[in-house]
């Protein structure tokens, strides 16, 4: 999925679904969508089949899987840095501030996904 701002110059690339057409279920990509939606950014969505990654996308961020952002010709690939970048560029009064008031709150749940992503359910072995 390629997301372009209404101005058309900058974009966000996120993972497409298994059919190559629908929006995928990548939690990092969904996080960027939530930020853009909560800020009220108007954007266009174009799906990209990552199994047949287009050459221009490969050239833009070689060896990197979405999500990533391009802005003024610069590619940003770290989701946390992208979130900080969006908060820095999309500021009040036009866009709401989403960052917590206390910066240390950013790291409060930083490892929650890593800890629970491998959880497969309760043990079903009985003795």
UniProtKB/TrEMBL annotation:
MF terms in GO: chloride channel activity; oxidoreductase activity
One of the record's GO cellular component terms: cytoplasm
Topology versus the membrane: Single-pass membrane protein
Location within or outside the cell: Cytoplasm; Membrane
Top-level taxon of origin: Eukaryota
Record carries keyword Membrane: yes
Database matches in InterPro entries: CLIC, CLIC_N, Thioredoxin-like_sf
Domain CLIC N-terminal, chain residue ranges per copy: 14-93
Entry keyword set: Chloride, Chloride channel, Cytoplasm, Ion channel, Ion transport, Membrane, Oxidoreductase, Transmembrane, Transmembrane helix, Transport, Voltage-gated channel
Family matches, as Gene3D superfamilies: Glutaredoxin (3.40.30.10)
Reactions catalysed, as given in the entry: chloride(in) = chloride(out)
Similarity comment: Belongs to the chloride channel CLIC family.
Protein name: Chloride intracellular channel 6
Organism: Sphaeramia orbicularis
High-level lineage: Eukaryota, Metazoa, Chordata, Craniata, Vertebrata
């Amino acid at each position: 999925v390629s997301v372009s701002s209404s101005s058309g110059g900058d974009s966000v690339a996120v993972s497409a679904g298994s059919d190559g057409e629908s929006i995928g279920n990548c939690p990092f990509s969904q996080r960027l969508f939530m930020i853009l939606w909560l800020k009220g950014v108007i954007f266009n969505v174009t799906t990209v089949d990552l199994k047949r990654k287009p050459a221009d996308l490969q050239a833009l961020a070689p060896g990197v899987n979405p999500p990533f952002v391009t802005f003024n010709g610069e590619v940003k690939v770290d989701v946390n840095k992208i979130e900080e970048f969006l908060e820095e560029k999309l500021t009040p009064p036009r866009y709401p501030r989403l960052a917590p008031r206390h910066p240390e709150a950013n790291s409060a749940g930083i490892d929650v996904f890593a800890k629970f992503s491998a959880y497969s359910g309760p043990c079903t072995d009985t003795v």
